[in-house]
Structure formats: structure tokens, C-alpha cells
Amino acid sequence: MSLNNPRVCINSPANKFVPSLHIEVAIVGAGASGLSCALHLQDRGIECAVFERDDTPCGSTALSSGFIPAPCTRTQTSLNIKDSVELFVSDLRSKSKGEGSALLEQAYASAIGPALDALEVSHGFDWEILDEFLYPGHSVHRMHALPARTGQALMARLMSRAQALGIPVLTRSLVNEIWMQDNKVIGVGITRVDGSVERYSCDALVLCCNGYGGNPDLIGQYIPEMKDAVFAGHIGNDGSAILWGEGLGAELADLGGYQGHGSWAVPHGILITWALMMQGAIQVNSLGKRFHNETTGYSEAAVEVLKQPGAVAWCIFDEEIFQKGCAFPDFQAATQLAAVRRFADAASLSDYIGCTQESIGDTLAQIQTDLKTNDGLDAHTGRTFNKAISAPYYAVKVTGALFHTQGGLSVNDQARVLMKNGHALENLFAAGGAARGVSGNAVWGYLSGNGLLSAFAGAYIAACSIKASRN
Ligand SMILES: Cc1cc2nc3c(=O)[nH]c(=O)nc-3n(C[C@H](O)[C@H](O)[C@H](O)COP(=O)(O)OP(=O)(O)OC[C@H]3O[C@@H](n4cnc5c(N)ncnc54)[C@H](O)[C@@H]3O)c2cc1C
Question: What is the whole-number distance in angstroms between the Cα of residue 210 and the centre of ligand 1?
Fold first, then answer.
């Protein structure tokens, strides 16, 4: 693919914008936010085209588990789960300790239900609620997924709907240029694989090109603690949005925020679902010792794992938890790849970890002691256990990984990009990882599902704002 060189061009007699075609709405990036925005625009009778740098749209969305939190959807209501926008906002605020954008928390928590319902009603997305366990930080069961429970299935569904409706998704189209005149976007410039440049004028532009996880320089600058960590997201997300933002004089926010994950199997490079931890699994280091409260959240767990000797840990669980993990396709794949290992007793488990049998034995016995004497509360980490882990044991060697960045362009509650002076650009929108998220400025502010929340809610808000501006 051609070199990414995002730049802002100002139309002037000396540097004239000469488009070959006009598009009502141009969308940069064909992931969850770009494609869902296109579907919502189509529902409103607005033409758009999606520009995607890759041959085959994938994005971080296809790499994800595809789990989206939303209150009060048709699916959730049909299951009689009591939830509200207020409760979701309260969960978001608790996780970010009040450091996330209050405006966006309210906007996204309000929009995500209607966004998922619209995809169900108009496009046949058959959402299910994952109700086997509560995701860390969520008060009720509100995590939605398609029946296949994979990001690949989610992407396939979005793409097949876009194709069925004839929405142009132009692949191998790297957007490098945003053209501006009088503080308005007038078009974009695309670089094709052969280096040729095409220019399109547009009435509105929606940036859905995610964050900067694929740009090591920007990670080193804004998230130095993860500069040497594995990046498990889409490498094509190399920071176009924030580089354009700098060129425009737009406000950037929460650039230190990100989703980490403390359970990335090594060397296999596959996600091990955090469901295991919520069902009673533990993480130990190479000394066979626990080192954090595993139920606080998988994002901050990445940093805790990276602090351990060799930057690795082992997820330890038993047969009951193993069987529950098998409900997740990622976990089945990890088992098939032999990332998940089974051990008859503590002796063989300790051999695998490389610690003493006594050490892992003490760690497992301590859970039983806590259950007997302290209602399961482990005084050292603050975790409360509901069950002990008994033989046969299972173990997966993992590291901490960076999944995606949560900082980006500041947007208002209409998804319009904000300038440093607070002025909202009339026809420039950002959604998903291109925009600032709702996790604040640090890893611990990420509530499970905040990534796809921003993608689907931001895209829906952008489509509604574009429609409203035309009335
Ligand atoms: C392993 C993993 C598991 C995850 N699981 C979950 C989960 O279960 N729930 C959740 O909420 N979040 C999850 N996430 C995070 C989630 O995947 C992202 O937050 C979400 O996919 C972002 O969607 P998006 O549309 O903003 O970006 P993407 O899906 O990454 O799409 C952006 C697209 O823009 C394209 N692009 C970038 N720059 C340009 C350019 N200049 N020109 C043209 N195209 C461009 C890219 O090629 C890409 O296709 C996970 C992430 C990972 C890595």
C-alpha cells in the first residue's frame, strides 16, 4: 500500500482543488464505524462512499471479539433485563473515575441502543446478549454480539449489507488529503496503489479511520508504557485522524487512553477471553504468585502483566472454567492451537510455569483459605473469590498487549470535530477510534466494550447529525 501521508490542503488559486467526482458524504475507513455509518446514512436516503486503504476491509473490527455494550435495546428488553442509559453512564463514569468526557458518555450511552436496534430492524442483525457472566465494570448484562461471537462475523455482516444496498466501498483507496476552504471540508484526495491520486468533492466527511495503535512513533510519544508491547490491532490504523487534526488545528484529547489486554496468548498471538477470570481463573507470574485483582478489568491487566518477570503470566483455571471458556470461538481456536494446556496436578503445572510446586500450591491453597475464613476476600489484591481452582488444571501463557488507542479528535455530542478554540467544524465528523473515546486518559478507564461502543454510537450520531443538517 502507498505511503500514508495525511495532510490538510487549503483550496486557493495557487493550490486548486480539482475533483473528478462529487459524493454527498465521504467516509474514511471501512470498519465498524465507517460501514455502520454508511448503513445509517442509507436508511436516511443519503448517498455516501466509503474509502478503505486495504484490499479487503478488516480493520480492528474483524480482529475484535465483536462485543458491544448497550442499554435498553430491543434484545435486552425482550430478556427482561432492567437497564437504563443512566445506569450505563454511571458504569462508564465509575470505570474512568470521572475522567472520561461526560458529554460523550451521555451521548454514546443514549445513542448505542437506537444504533443497534436500527441495525437489527433495518438490516437484520440478530443480536444476542452475552449473559453467562458480567463483564468487568458492567452492572447488568448488556453485552451484545452476533450469534457467531466474532468480530469477523460482525465485519462480514456489515460488508454484506453495504454490498446488498449498493453502497460503494472503494478499497485500495488510501485517503491522504483533506481539502478545506473557509473552515469547511470541500473534498478528499485518495492515493491508489499505483501512486495515482484521485480527488472527490463532498458535502460532509466522516473520519472512521480508528486511532494510532499502528504508528510506533505516536505510541512512543503518547503511550510510552506500551511502546514495546505487542500491538494486536489493525496496523493500517496509523494515526491519520490525529495527524489531520494537528494539520487542522483541531483539539485532540485523551491521547494517553487506550485498551490494553492482559491475556494475549504467546507465542500463538490469540486473545484468551477474560470471561475465564470473571468465572474464577487467576493469573500467576513465573514465580507462581498472583499479582493483581484480575476482576478489575482486562485493559489495565495488560500493564500488570508487562510488569512481571519476562513480561509474561499464566492464566490458571480448572475444568469447570475451561468448559465455560469453550463458549467463545477465540478460546476454541486457542485450544486447537495448543495454547491452552491441561495438567493433572500441581507438580506438572509448576513444571510448565517453571516455578516451584510449593509456590503454585500455596497460591491455590490461599484461595481455599480465603473462601473458608474471609468470605472469599483476598486481602492482598481486594479480589473476592466465589470458588476454588481444583485439579486437573489448565494454563495459558500470556502477555499484555495494546489493542487500540482511545484518544483522538475531540468531538461534540453531534460527532462534529472541535477546533482548539472550541468551534465545531460544520461538516467534519469523527467516529470510533478516530475520535476521543469515553475512557479518560489512562488504561484503567477502559470499560469493557468501549471500543465498539464509540464505533457504533459515534457512527449513528454522525449519520443523524448529517441528516439533521440537511433538513
Ligand atoms: C483483539 C481485539 C479484540 C477486541 N475486542 C473488542 C470487543 O469485543 N469489544 C469492543 O468494544 N472492542 C473490541 N476491540 C476494539 C475494537 O476492535 C475497536 O475499538 C473497533 O473495531 C474500532 O472500530 P473502527 O471502525 O473505529 O476502526 P477499524 O475497525 O479499525 O476500522 C478502521 C479502518 O480505517 C482504515 N483506514 C485507516 N486509515 C485510513 C486512511 N488514511 N485511508 C483509508 N482507510 C484508512 C483501516 O484500514 C481500517 O479498515 C478489540 C480490539 C482487538 C485488537
Answer: 6
Q: What is the CATH number of domain 7-257+407-470?
A: 3.50.50.60
CB 175 within 8 A of CB 434: no
Q: Report d(CA 155, CA 63) in Å as an integer.
A: 9
Q: Which of 5, 54, 61, 439 to mutate to test the pocket of ligand 1 (most atoms within 8 A of CB)?
A: 61
Pocket test for ligand 1, best of 8, 51, 60 (most atoms within 8 A of CB): 60
Which residue lies with its CA nearest to atom 2 of ligand 1?
A: 64
Domain residues of the chain, as ranges? 7-257+407-470, 259-402
By most ligand atoms within 8 Å of CB, the mutation choice from 209, 299, 399 for ligand 1 is 209
Tell me the longest C-alpha to C-alpha distance in the chain. 80
Which phi and psi angles does 113 have, rounded to 5°? -65, -55
13 CA distance to ligand 1 middle (Å): 38
What is the chain's length?
471
Query: Can you give the pTM of this predicted structure?
Result: 0.96
Ligand 1 atom, smallest distance to 432 CA: 26
Closest residue to atom 4 of ligand 1, CA basis: 64
Residue 383 and residue 405 in contact, taking contact as beta carbons nearer than 8 Å: no
CA angle centred on 431, ends 28 and 90, rounded to 5°:
165
Nearest CA to ligand 1 atom 48: 59
- Ligand 1 is surrounded, with C-beta below 6 A, by 4, 28-34, 51-54, 57-61, 63-68, 174-175, 208-210, 232-234, 236-237, 240, 259, 271, 403-404, 432-433, 449, 451-453, 455
Q: How many CA atoms lie within 13 A of 200 on its CB side?
A: 23
- Residue 182 has a CB neighbour count (10 Å cut-off) of 8
Task: List pLDDT tens digits, range 406-462.
Answer: 999 999 999 999 999 999 999 999 999 999 999 999 999 999 999 999 999 999 999
Domain 259-402 in CATH 3.40.50.300 = no
* Residue 236, C-beta contacts closer than 8 angstroms, at least 6 positions apart: 1, 53, 54, 59, 214
pLDDT tens-digit profile of 301-313?
999 999 999 999 9
